[in-house]
Amino acid sequence: MSLMALMAGCMGMGSGLTGVSDMQFTLDTPWHSEPLEVPPARINDPSVVDPFTRKDWYDVKAPSFFDVRTVGKTLVNRTQGLRNANDYLKNRVLEVNLADLNNNQEDGFRKVKLQIQEIQGKNCLTNFYGMDFTSDKLRSLVKKWQSLIEAHIDVKTSDGYLVRLFSIAFTKRRPNQVRKTTYATHAQIRQIRKKMFEIMQREASSCDLKELVQKLMPEVIGKAIEKATQGIYPLQNVFVRKVKILKAPKFDLVKLLELHGESASDMGKSVPGAKDFKEPAILDSV
Predict the structure, then answer these.
(1) Which residues contact 209 (CB under 8 A, 6 or more apart)?
(2) Which of the residue ranges 5-19, 75-89, 151-165 would you say has the lowest mean pLDDT?
(3) Confidence (pLDDT) at 20
(4) Rounded to the nearest 10 degrees, how much is the dihedral formed by the CA atoms of 258, 264, 268, 272?
(5) Where are the transmembrane segments (predicted)?
(6) Between the chain's N and C termini, which has fewer beta carbons within 10 Å?
């Protein structure tokens, strides 16, 4: 039956319907017949425990060759039964900006990795674990019309750390240069890369890890590379952009305490002014 015939039949019936507008069509949808019931939030349920109530905060201490010693705080589950919190804190690697460690905003493009190696009370003693550039700094160095030169080498420091150094350099315009581009030839790039290998090997193998970090922060190695390659091709933006520790010697607590300005030989020494202390006399009455 067509829609027009249905409308005509409805209008001709004597059931009191005045038209199609009086008719009500409903869909048989039982899943929409009742509103969905949402369970109430378990806010006051005593069985729900905040996980942070089972955790403790520890202070992170940086080595003494950084200006700022207290880096921040780290979180760990509280010691319970056979699960010791110190075991979960040791060997944890933290990433800190060098600008925060040295209070110098000019070092904001470097990221330093610190590894927790010892726990003393609520303090986590860390050691240097690596260094890297921020991505925005690295991308800002790459430009057109110049050559990019990279080199990396594995060096063993005097105290037994095997580190991998990544260096980066860019060619620059000579004085009074007219040509637009500053591309170096393949032979020049090989000579520059050879110089980079020699300088990184010499500077890193002749010092321990602490002295190496102190060379990396003021960019001593990069300046030495830039000076040594002036006769081959002028360079600019020469950096040791990344440092990775591949292998570390056996853990030595005494050396770690020396890095943090402490010494194991100081333990048990008398406190200054202890000889002048006199025990007060016993009072007869209070």
Answers:
(1) 127, 128, 157, 159, 161, 163
(2) 5-19
(3) 45
(4) -10
(5) none
(6) C
In a domain, 21, yes or no: no
Measured distance CA(129)–CA(63) in Å, rounded = 11
Least confident of 39-48, 57-66, 77-86, 136-145: 39-48
Alpha-carbon 262 to chain mean position: 26
Cβ-contact 59, 70 below 8 angstroms? yes
The pair of structure tokens assigned to 208 is 């321990």
User: Phi/psi zone of residue 91: left (φ > 0), alpha (ψ -120 to 50 degrees), beta?
Assistant: left
Structural domain including 216 reads 142-247
The token pair at 171 is 């060619």
Does the pTM exceed 0.90? no
DSSP state of 51: G
CA 192 to CA 184: how far, in whole Å? Answer: 10
74 and 156 fall within a common domain: no
**For residues 256 and 90, what is the distance between their CA atoms, to the nearest angstrom?**
14
How many domains is the chain partitioned into structurally? Answer: 2
Query: Do 150 and 243 fall into the same domain?
Result: yes
**What's the pLDDT tens digit per position in 228-278?**
999 999 999 999 999 999 999 999 999 999 989 865 444 445 555 545 556
